[in-house]
Amino acid sequence: MPLKAPEAYELDRSESPAMDHSHDEDSDVSDVDEFDPLRSSGRPYTDDASQPIRSVFDSEKNGSFSKQPLAWLDTQRKRGWLQRWLIPSRFCCVLILLFVATLVLLLSAGGIWVYKAAVPDDGESEPWYPTPRGGTVESWKDAYKKAADLVGQMTLVEKVNITSGIGWSMGMCVGNTGPVDRLGFPSLCLQDGPLGLRFVDNATAWPAGITVGATWNKELMYERGKGHGFEAKKKGINVILGPSMGPIGRLPAGGRNWEGFGSDPTLQGIAAAQTIKGIQDTGVMATAKHYVGNEQEHFRQSWEWGTPNAISSNIDDRAMHEIYAWPFADSVRAGVASVMCSYNQLNNSYACQNSKLMNGILKDEMGFQGFVQSDWLAQRSGVASALAGLDMTMPGDGLKWADGNSLWGAELTKAVLNTSVPMERLNDMVTRVVAAWYQLGQDDKDEWPAVADRGGPNFSSWTDDKEGELHPGSPNSKETGVVNKYVPVRKTDESGDHDALARKIATEGIVLVKNSDSMLPLNRTGKGVVYKAGTEKIKVGIFGEDAFPNPNGNNACEDRGCNVGTLAMGWGSGAVELPYLVSSWETLKANFVEDRYEVTQWRYNDDHEGAASMASEQRTCIVFINSDAGEGFLSWDGIKGDRNDLHPQKNGDALVKNVAEHCENTIVVVHTVGPTILEEWIEVPAVKAVMIAHLPGQESGNAIADVLFGDVNPSGRLPYTIAKKEEDYGPSSGILFYPNGIVPQQNFSEGLYIDYRYFDKHDIEPRYEFGYGLSYVDFKLNSLVVNTRGSIGELPKGRPKGLKPPKMDDSLPSPESALWPEGMRKLKKYIYPYIDSTSDIKKGAYPYPRGYGRAHELSPAGGGEGGNPDLFETAVVVQASLTNLGDIPAACVVQVYISYPSNVTDTDGEPVDMPVKVLRAFEKYYFDEPKRVPVKLELTRRDLSYWDVKRQNWVIPQGEFTLHLGFSSRDLPMQSTFSTLLGLNLRGNQDGAR
Ligand code: NOJ
After folding, report:
1. Which whole-number Å values give the CA distances from 596 to 328, 340, 632, 666, 701, in the listed order?
2. CA angle at residue 548 from 546 to 549, to 5 degrees?
3. Which domain of life is it from (predicted)?
């Protein structure tokens, strides 16, 4: 039966980039992999203009970008275009043209110079081939067995169909793969993620990742994932495009930091793993994204920012392991079904064709068993990306948006037939996808009915109407049908109440950073509040646009791409349609008891006189300000994704100062995507309390009221550092706003030192440190005992062998089998796997990337999901007791940091630099009645290790470690030491209070 055969007429494929040998240059092999000088040194990369340079014009490796100018001139010559202008009457035009041409030449000379200066010879990423095959770990064994059986029955085109998206807006979801109806394998629906279900009706608008990170609550992380997964399943979504753990937050102004959980690998890793477990326990596949180094929006992808190439994030091997890849390892260990490679280049090789990243670190070292999908148009080559470990291209269209020309689809069919992509690689790609589908139980026909049985996606990303087009992206499709079934998902008997859960998370994600004179909690009844004698009502003023809804509607701006009204989430693909949005004005007005309070509003940020005069009449003023950011395809008020600075937006600072000058009890609420500088007013005595409320989603106002009135004792902790000034984050912490070359280069020269690690190293006092947050009570820790477990020798046990991947038939079918089925009607722009003619199949020598011919040795750090299983064995047990010193219920986050032994040296006796301390574990404890609870946390071998770039393994430095237990990265009242040399278990100091 023909695949993907919607009604259609003709296929326009004239400009399709090919994968066969005649079009090798489109594969951009140059960016695949070359030797990485960083690997052996571990030093951060620095620009070295003296390096030998790859010429823009001298190699087919540079692809269409380099060849285009010459080809263009050639064509024009053939057309006689130049001659036509050499006519005397047009002399002045010739002069102008000459001027323009000279300018262009000068500019291109400059461009070539800049390019040469900026791009190191042959890239910097080590080649890692071939792609390790899936099916090597016990927990995926059954899924792989079933997958191998099913894939074994598939034809070549059927296999290709599964690896390639069908094109932007060709199906109901933001990503749709081709089905194999004959064998009952469905088209997979992939949908954003990670904050909720994008473009989906009546789904929960959850608090954003950064808010979830601020809860430091593992159970809520899991529950949110589960709620997200439940809703996805009910809407017929197979794969959620989340959680996000990259960007990690290296740059405080990074536009998409808010989609992830905070600026620390341990926090990101734990939150991501909990989210993944929650999502996947419902049977929906999760996607760990964006792998890796997409730390800013500017220049994140080719052409979007005017540069032909995406930015290169230049990351050294140690920082890659200890910071950026760390949360992905936790995700893989949690069994994540999919990983999304990012737009940017990594050490001058595109992340989606970087074999070191995908074949090496992800599939070998981390033992990833699922499939790698590209971010949308992040794939920049056909053969090269397949060889480097990409398994699925999304949304199917290749180098350009929605043009129907795929780098895979029919091109992959050709590449397999002409042997440039080995059949073994294609078999592995498909088996990985199908195995993930089995692993999540999506073959269960009762749980996941087929489209024919009214299954599949029951919403449309492209219309809110009940009926709509089935393939809206195709210019010649007229097919329509019922596309939106409006299935309720937020509150069902099965799911419980997601609105209530969202409120709980938003509430716990609020971080109280200042509360002088015990200003909070407020008393909603007015009882006990002394205010002038007499019967006058107590006056409370609510100030600032952020307390009120967007007057044009909650969903007025596309993908929430504007900052108008209260800020519930950032913008971009990670935003969702709000089913409702509770504003703070609504809840506060309703909460203050009417016959005791008079609540007044000032809903502007700008009119200072009016605000001042209203403020001077109030007993208490609550000021709402915010700071927004988002994904780079949208911009608002000059903010092109990344924030331009870290200050509150829309005159927020001025509003606070103005109100506080006239109102002696001022409370400030900050809705924000990340670190916000508070210095202009934080020390003003009238500013009594400050709440960092992050991005709460639909339950915004309710969460504020919960904390403000003390119904919930605040327990959020900062998932990043708030500095006194932007420069305090370090010289490499700023966004690269202007390209510094044709391939913009961003050197992660700070290595391991992001966020609090940088502040610690340089002894900089932050305004509020990572992990900080207040409660309405105090806590005390005591009786710290630290025990080491098992062996904590330098190296983990040897890599376990693992299972043999299933046997597959790797022989090639006849090219005829891949031809268009006779009589099949084709949709324009739709991505199909069929070839037009067998003469398309030309065999020849494919210019494989360097290193391709030699099998890379396997990493000693691998051998299980997440890495060598020994890395995840418990090495240290931390016990203590925690007391709530107050007399009300409360919750407290206990944090464990470790400091490595001093003077660590490597095998050559060279010093190994170590951060002052790193977060390695945390737990949140709840107090209802008992005032004292036991604390128990465990650290693994990996937690004690550093990545040794010479040994290419995780190594525990031998010597004395210090373990710090406490309430933030700077409030660590308890310490203990333990030695890896002597195996000694020492007792720490006996108590520590806050
Ligand atoms: C691009 C974004 O970077 C990614 O996070 C998202 O999942 C896809 N677009 C699909 O919307």
Report:
1. 53, 55, 48, 19, 21
2. 110
3. Eukaryota
Q: Tell whether the model's pLDDT for residue 304 goes beyond 50.
A: yes
- The protein residue whose alpha carbon is closest to atom 3 in ligand 1 is 375
Per-residue model confidence as pLDDT tens digits over 945-979: 999 999 999 999 999 999 999 999 999 999 999 99
Task: Tell me whether residue 760 is one of the annotated catalytic residues.
Answer: no
The Cα–Cα gap between 620 and 684 comes to: 15
Cβ partners under 8 Å of residue 823, min gap 6: none
User: If you ran DSSP here, which 8-state letter would residue 88 be given?
Assistant: G
Across the chain, mean pLDDT equals 89
Question: Mean pLDDT, to the nearest integer, of 580-608?
Answer: 95
Cα separation, 325 vs 670, in Å, equals 31
375, 706, 840, 870: which one is catalytic?
Answer: 375
pLDDT range class, residue 94, cuts 50, 70, 90? low
Residues 188 and 177: beta-carbon distance below 8 Å: yes
Cis before residue 247, ω within 30 degrees of 0?
yes
- Among candidates 674, 689, 692, 335, which has minimal Cα distance to 506? 692
Ligand 1, residue 343: give the atom nearest the CA. 3
User: What separation in Å is there between the alpha carbon of 302 and the centre of ligand 1?
Assistant: 15
Question: How many CB atoms within 10 Å of residue 139?
Answer: 11
DSSP 27: G
To the nearest whole percent, how much of the chain has pLDDT over 70?
A: 86
Q: Rounded to 5 degrees, what angle do the CA atoms 706, 694, 488 make?
A: 70
**532 contact partners, CB below 8 Å, separation of at least 6:** none
Q: Which residue has the tokens 């003003």?
A: 684
pLDDT at 86: 36
Burial of 568 (0-12, 13-18, 19+ CB in 10 A): buried
- How many angstroms is it from 573 CA to the middle of ligand 1? 6
Q: pLDDT band for position 849 (50/70/90)? A: confident
pTM of the model: 0.90
The CA 376 to ligand 1 mean position distance, Å, reads: 6
Nearest-CA residue for atom 11 of ligand 1: 573
